[in-house]
Amino acid sequence: MLNIVQTSILEMIEIYGEDKCKSILSSFHCPLNQDVENFLHNKAIAFAKQYLAMTFLVFITYNKQLLPVGYYTLANKFLSLSDTTISKTIQKKIFKFAQLEPYSKQYFVPIPLIAQLGKNDKYSELISGEQLLTLACNRVKKAQKIIGGKMVYIECASNPKLHSFYSANGFSEFGQRGGNNVLPLIQMVKYF
After folding, report:
1. Which candidate, 105, 96, 106, 103, places its Cα nearest to that of 191?
2. What is the structure's pLDDT at 85?
3. 189 and 94 in contact (C-beta within 8 Å)?
4. What is the rounded CA–CA span in Å between residue 128 and residue 149?
5. Alpha-carbon span 93 to 67, nearest angstrom
């Protein structure tokens, strides 16, 4: 049986120091998504130190070795939504956590974002995308038992494979962000 270990970048820095943490991060490779790899190699430590977003590394014990198999990054965000952009079903779930800004007629919703999710290509057969996503969602649920909330969201590239993956894991599309010379990101929410 495989043993899964999760740790935040800040915990790793406390225990092993920043140089060792950087060395471990540099062992992650995700050639299918350079943004995922670039974030982990070049931004994750700075974001964690500034408390902008927390990255959690996922390791699996395999043949008595602790192997870095994936990671996810969580952040607190506010969504700005209008009642005309999302379905009535999602409105009912989201708007009980939202606050209406009367001048703009926009609803502001505090909601955790799974900002990054990536597998280490070198050990990709040891963990599935579904397992990694479940670990991230479980971490969000644990935090929400302390601070409240019932949702999480993601933003992903407009890619049918990604859309299908997140849909199969309980996420529903509610909007897009970007455009105007920037590729749009599909926004999807999961209600626990």
Report:
1. 96
2. 66
3. yes
4. 27
5. 39
Q: What span, in angstroms and rounded, lies between the C-alpha atoms of 124 and 68?
A: 10
The pairing of beta strand 151-157 with beta strand 106-119: parallel
Q: Amino acid identity, residue 81?
A: L
CA–CA separation, 113 and 129 (whole Å): 17
Work out the burial of residue 36: count CB atoms within 10 Å of its CB; fewer than 13 is exposed, 13-18 middle, 19 or more buried: buried
- Tell whether pTM > 0.85: yes
Cα–Cα distances in angstroms (integers) from residue 5 to residues 8, 16, 34, 145, 156, in the given order: 10, 16, 25, 21, 26
> What are the 10-residue block averages of pLDDT along the chain, 192 residues in total?
89 96 93 89 97 97 91 93 72 80 83 96 94 98 94 92 96 82 85 90
Among residues 118, 123, 152, the alpha carbon closest in space to that of 35 is found at 118
Place of tokens 């070795």: 65
**105 Cβ contact partners less than 8 Å away, ≥ 6 residues apart:** 82
Residue with tokens 């019932």: 150
Q: What's the full length of the chain, in residues?
A: 192
